[in-house]
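User: Zinc finger protein 740. Structure?
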Amino acid sequence: MAHLHNSKNLHKEKEKSGKHKEKEDNGLPQPKKSHKKVVVIEQNGSFQMTIPKNFICEHCYGAFRSSYHLKRHIYIHTGEKPFQCDVCDMRFIQKYHLERHKRVHSGEKPYHCERCQQAFSRTDRLLRHKRMCQGCRSKAPDGQILL
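Assistant: Predicted structure:
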């Protein structure tokens, strides 16, 4: 009973301070926006934390964890590409894809292989290089050949 009394006092204090939160059925203050994490424990003792995907696409019923991700996804169905390159007029669904594309025009290559110093404009190209380049996989960072 003391716990309930304390939580009511806490709620009254928050109302007075202007930091009012929505209440759930249990009468305890709850945050207005929360991304509750769900912990799934497997039989082998391993566990993972997930965020529920409560935002559903009405076109394909895909589930997303936020309204932002759902809105971005809906562009796939509508064909809308709101981000346009000012050099070549290519259009993109995501701003990040536009920014990445602009490196084609600027020649910027910010990603470097630490073994051979070859430069790349995209991280995926650097990762592919690291997987495929035999010379880089068999050389030490100082240039010596590894056995």
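Residues 2-17 form the longest helix (16 residues). The helical segments are 2-17, 67-78, 95-106, 123-132, 134-138.
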